[in-house]
Each structure stands twice: as structure tokens, then as C-alpha cells.
Amino acid sequence: MSNFSVASASGSDLRQFLLDLLIQLAYREGDFVLSSGQSSAYYINGKEVTLNAEGALAIGRLILPLLPPQTQAVAGLTLGADPIVSAVSVVSAYEARPIPALIIRKEAKGHGTKAYIEGPTLPAGAKVVVLEDVVTTGKSALQAVERLQDAGYVVEEIIALVDREQGGGELYQSKGLQFQALFSILELQERYKTVNSHQ
């Protein structure tokens, strides 16, 4: 892997690189309480990978081709999605398909415009794809969707880094939203077992 380049690797090699990075840096087993209040035998700290230079580049390169052709922006709820929307936006510029990034605050800004959405103002009806790092119940990405819809944008799809498969996908489906994740939790757990059984 010493001659491996995140900038030029093919899709399947890039995906394997990102999976291994998630296992090395983000995935932990133990006793944890999630933001949803649920307890869990594992935890994924996505920011360990999304704020890693090569991790961010791999994420941007893998998510960009998943965006529908008419996508006019990517957006996500602060803080987990911030590095992901930025990575996808930067990669899109390199691919001559510049797509701006929007960051959605959890609470309206307390001064100035008092806005919920940071980033370029788009025309009404602009098509925006919501990005997320880890989906559990799905509520945080849904909050982003609702804020964007309130601003007059059209959101039809959510793309996540990891799906914990704990109801998020079903929630999105019930709201008429398409959902895809780069990885399922089962893929992470299988790879974690494989890697750790060889050590």
C-alpha cells in the first residue's frame, strides 16, 4: 500500500482504503451511550476519519459520483456532516462539477441574519442532497432536510458514511426520501473481526 494514492485510486480500492481507515480510527467496541440516548456495544467516531486528510479525500471521491446529476448543493447538520459536505464540495471543483456546500445549524444564529443555513443562497427549488456521517435513528439528518425544505429547497436523498441499521433508513423511506450509505455497520464489524483476528 506504500504506493497507494487516495487521489488516483480506483473506486473499489478507495472503498477498501476508507473501510480500513474507519476500522483503524473510528470504530470502537465497549459500552457506550449514543446521542440518541441508546446504549451500544460499539461506537463510531466518524470525525476521526472525516477530519483526516486522506479520509476526507476518499469520502469526497466516493460520494461525489453518487450524487444525482441535477444536484445543486450538498448539505448537512453541524457538526458531524461539516467535513463531509466540505470534502465533497472541494472534490467536485477538481472534477469540474463545482457543487457548493451548506452547513445547517442546530439553532438559528443569534445575530445578523439569524439564519439556520450557512453557505451560498441558492435559487428556490434548488435540489440539495443531505450528507451525514453515521445514521442511527435518522433524526439529525431529517432535521437538516426540514430546515432546507423550509428554505424552499428540494431534498429527495440522504447519503451517509455508515448506516447503523437502527431505523434511520426506514424513517427516511416513510418520509419519501431515498437513502444510501457507503457502508453498513455489518461491513464494519466483519472487517473489524477480520483485522483483529490476524493480530
What class, by secondary structure content? alpha/beta
Determine the strand fraction and express it as a percent band: 25-35%
Estimate the helix proportion, in percent: 25-40%
Mean of pLDDT: 94
| Total beta-strand segments | 8
User: What is the string of SSEs from the N terminus onward?
Assistant: HEEHHEHEEEHEHEH
Shape: globular
Outline the low-pLDDT stretches: none
| Number of separate structural domains | 1
**CATH class categorisation:** Alpha Beta
Q: What's the arrangement of strands in the largest beta sheet?
A: 5-4-3-6-7-8
CATH topology grouping: Rossmann fold
How far apart are the termini? 18 Å
What would CATH call the architecture? 3-Layer(aba) Sandwich
**What is the alpha-carbon Rg in Å?**
17 Å
Number of helices: 7
| Largest sheet geometry | 6 strands, mixed
